[in-house]
Specification:
This protein is α/β, with parallel strands linked by helices. It has helices spanning 4-16, 19-30, 52-58, 88-94, 107-116, 163-172, 205-209, 229-235, 252-259, 294-307, 325-336; strands at residues 37-39, 44-46, 61-62, 75-76, 219-222, 240-244, 262-264, 279-285, 308-322, 340-349, 358-366. The longest helix is centred in the C-terminal third of the chain and has 14 residues, at 294-307. Bound molecules: 2-acetamido-2-deoxy-beta-D-glucopyranose (NAG) (3 copies). The site of one 2-acetamido-2-deoxy-beta-D-glucopyranose (NAG) has 2 residues, from loops.
Length: 373
């Protein structure tokens, strides 16, 4: 594979060149299977050319009515993740399909590409693969706590091929899977956030809502919310929560949608798609933790602060880290964002043994009413 820098240079070059040149380059070079050589004034090197559909999507798109004052431009450059061009092989696979035809059934490669940083993924001009025998969802409110029919899911990307398999995998499958016991709505999901537990780390939804005037928490976001039981519980209280989730070896987004709440297919890397000062509450359990690169986490926490309205709540639920990390890295980082502490509970995580010195932090943080700069 060529160096990312070269590929990026080519990409930039193509973006800034005319549509005609882009079409010329893509049609001339994509048809050959060998790696072509392209000379630019900036660099003379061997490139792997980007897929023509990718170039078609990302090239300058002229506005039909010319200059637009809102855009301050006469051109749109449709967005894709900065990382897309770093992975030309995967990108080529993802963007190879028959235009106006059916997309390949390629959820797994799409998600890998996205997780590595090609987010947002480019749009495609093909019809997405769908379950062969889709059935209508269970009607509300029964849907909130029902296991949907298997026929509502395209199972190709997952080890399990049925909901029964997902529900039983806590007993039948070895090894780690994200949210392994989440699909069993009669299991642990049933009692999450319903009553506080003695360790102090588990706040209940009603305790948290009780810190505010009734009715003032109305809309919000759950980051990495598994099967969206948090959103379901909030819906039962007439609060609208959208839930971000990936499909890590399970059809999380399909399942969330089948329950009748809104899934958002968004990784932790992506800027939150909400305007500043708009949400009443942001919740996240287990997901925001020490596995996230520190700088990324720092940006993410400021993004949460950005989308919360003044007086809005950030419920950091079971933030996980090890030993001194909490005091040395995460506590100063979280405190530097500018939240007011409503609750702050530190506890030991003992499920894998005390010798590992694993720690949890559960915090309820408020964005101050008065902007501190
Ligand atoms: C796809 O459909 C559009 C709109 O009808 C058409 O202009 C284009 O030529 C089609 N492309 C292919 C490759 O079939
Ligand atoms: C399609 O799905 C429905 C509902 O889940 C099921 O009853 C039916 O047997 C399925 N048909 C086929 C051909 O798989
Ligand atoms: C939710 O809204 C409905 C319709 O307005 C109302 O009947 C119900 O009592 C509300 N539930 C709660 C828990 O506030």
């Amino acid at each position: 594979m060529d160096s990312p820098h070269k590929t990026n240079l080519l990409f930039l070059f193509l973006l800034f060149s005319t549509n005609l040149l882009t079409l010329f380059v893509s049609s001339v070079f994509y048809s050959s299977s060998c790696t072509p050589t392209i000379s630019t004034t900036a660099d003379t090197a061997t490139f792997q050319v980007l897929p023509p559909e990718f170039l078609a999507f990302t090239q300058a798109q002229r506005l039909p009515f010319g200059f637009n004052r809102n855009f301050d431009s006469d051109t749109i450059y449709p967005p894709v993740g900065n990382g897309c061009t770093l992975f030309p092989e995967e990108l080529r696979k993802f963007m190879s399909y028959k235009v106006n035809g059916s997309c390949p059934d390629d959820e797994l490669i799409a998600q890998k590409l996205l997780l590595k940083g090609c987010e947002p993924l480019p749009r495609r001009r093909c019809r997405t693969a769908a379950p062969p025998n889709y059935s209508e969802p269970v009607p509300l409110s029964a849907s909130l706590w029902s296991t949907p029919p298997d026929s509502s899911v395209l199972w190709t990307a997952y080890t399990c091929k049925s909901y029964e398999c997902l529900i039983n995998r806590i007993k039948t499958q070895k090894g780690f899977d994200d949210c392994k016991d989440c699909f069993d709505l009669q299991g642990r999901e049933r009692n999450r956030w319903t009553s506080p537990r003695s360790n102090g780390l588990d706040f209940s939804i009603d305790d948290v809502l009780g810190t505010r005037k009734p009715g003032t928490i109305r809309i919000g976001l759950d980051i990495g919310g598994g099967v969206a039981t948090f959103a379901v519980r909030m819906r039962e209280r007439n609060i609208t929560i959208v839930t971000t989730s990936m499909n890590l070896n399970g059809p999380f987004n399909s399942f969330i949608a089948s329950r009748g709440v809104v899934p958002l297919y968004l990784s932790i890397s992506q800027r939150l798609p909400f305007f500043d000062n708009t949400l009443d509450i942001v919740h996240s359990m287990h997901v925001l933790s020490n596995w996230i690169p520190t700088t990324l986490l720092h940006f993410l926490l400021f993004d949460v602060h950005r989308v919360l309205r003044p007086g809005g709540l950030f419920w950091l639920d079971h933030f996980f880290c090890v030993g001194e990390e909490l005091e040395q890295v995460y506590k100063p980082m979280i405190q530097s964002i500018g939240f007011r502490k409503v609750k702050w509970v530190i506890g030991k995580k003992l499920d894998r043994g005390p010798e590992l010195k694993e720690m949890y932090l559960s915090a309820l943080l408020e964005k101050p009413l008065n902007n501190s700069r």
